[in-house]
Amino acid sequence: MEKLSRNSRVVAITKILMENPNKVIGLNNFSDLLNAAKSTISEDIVIVREVLEKLEMGKVETIAGAAGGIKYIPGIGHNESSKFAKELCTLLRDEIRIVPGNFIYMTDVMYNPQIISRAGVILSSFFKATEVDYVVTVETKGIPLAYEVARNLGIQLVIIRRDSKITEGSTVTINYVSGTSGRIQQMSLSKKSMKPSSKCVFIDDFLRGGGTAKGIKDLLKEFDSELVATGVLVDNVGISKKKVEDYISIVELKHIDEDDKLEVNPSEIMK
């Protein structure tokens, strides 16, 4: 392979790192791919690291040891996070989103790649210092957001089902009280889905009463595992008594008034 210029190597290194978040990549891989000495690659990485940190687009960490290398940790600056939260609030305030029962239509938001990819970076940045083995979510609307968070953290996504499927093999099923309706519902998880004694983060699109999050916490106990954090896109703060306390949200929905106006604002951590 012909020798590449420094600019070309920097572009290639940046692309590889950003496509493999939180994955340790050895310098030998870059050296072989780009036909350059390790010392040269190290100098290129310094440039990549400085630019990403200066633009608040994440950081590059060096991992020492025989199996070491570098890894890219996605990130976003507070100003950009705040700007995103405000834009999302503007989008959600549209009165046509109100559906009977004082619910808000969010399906288009949850399946918008541009919105969900940015939300995934924001939420994952709060958990990057937490020891986590899995990201868990409940089918179906929260899956895209949970996938993005899992990808950014470099860990596996586990999807909890409402009903057990024959293709899942042996499952553990529990009953839980829905925070929305107060009714008894079920959630199911395959015994093959995760290792015992795992630490998990729960990601969802909307937090109303916290019944689902509480149910997941109880379900994980059946796997001798622990729910260490919860993150959601929208938190309904109009409900004061929730079944969970510690969680992170990007925007807050307070209430729907008599004129069908939605009061949606960035959460405190986004301001």
From TrEMBL:
Keywords: DNA-binding, Transcription, Transcription regulation. Residues 127-251 form the Phosphoribosyltransferase domain. Residues 6-74 form the Bacterial purine repressor N-terminal domain. This is Putative Purine operon repressor, PurR. GO terms for molecular function: DNA binding. It comes from the Bacteria. Belongs to the purine/pyrimidine phosphoribosyltransferase family. PurR subfamily. GO terms for biological process: negative regulation of DNA-templated transcription; negative regulation of purine nucleobase metabolic process. Homodimer. InterPro entries: PRTase-like (IPR029057), PRTase_dom (IPR000836), Pur/Pyrimidine_PRTase (IPR050118), PuR_N (IPR015265), PurR_Bsub (IPR010078), WH-like_DNA-bd_sf (IPR036388), WH_DNA-bd_sf (IPR036390). Signal peptide: none annotated. Pfam families: Pribosyltran, PuR_N.
